[in-house]
# Entry
Amino acid sequence: MSRNYVQLRQFLEQNFPELEGNIHGSNYPPPEFAVYLSQLIGILQIFAMAAVFMGDAIWQFVPFMNGQPPGWWPQVKENPMLVVCTLFMGNSIANSMTTTGAFEVLLDGVVVFSKLETGRMPSGPEILQVFKGAGL
# Structure
């Protein structure tokens, strides 16, 4: 769980002891296409790492290549630094695609605060006002 969730849970449990043990958090799901694209980037990274270690021999294990490297392979071998930088950038892109930055507070299944809508985290007084207004 994120640090923000832990801080909010502790804040609520201090101000509303009756909520202790009844506050739950979960990760907001990223868009489905982002998950698939992130997985594809991960597979490409694994293949690229295998290619770095195995060199030309890797093409013997790719069924549809018949042991022959593709036309772009010599350029990859000539620019190893570019390949390494691309691998690192691919990892960053994959991570950023699956991070939503979402933070929502629900009370009895109703959203009482959404970072997605406001673009900011809730303040303590805001949360207290909402929960006290709900009768806690």
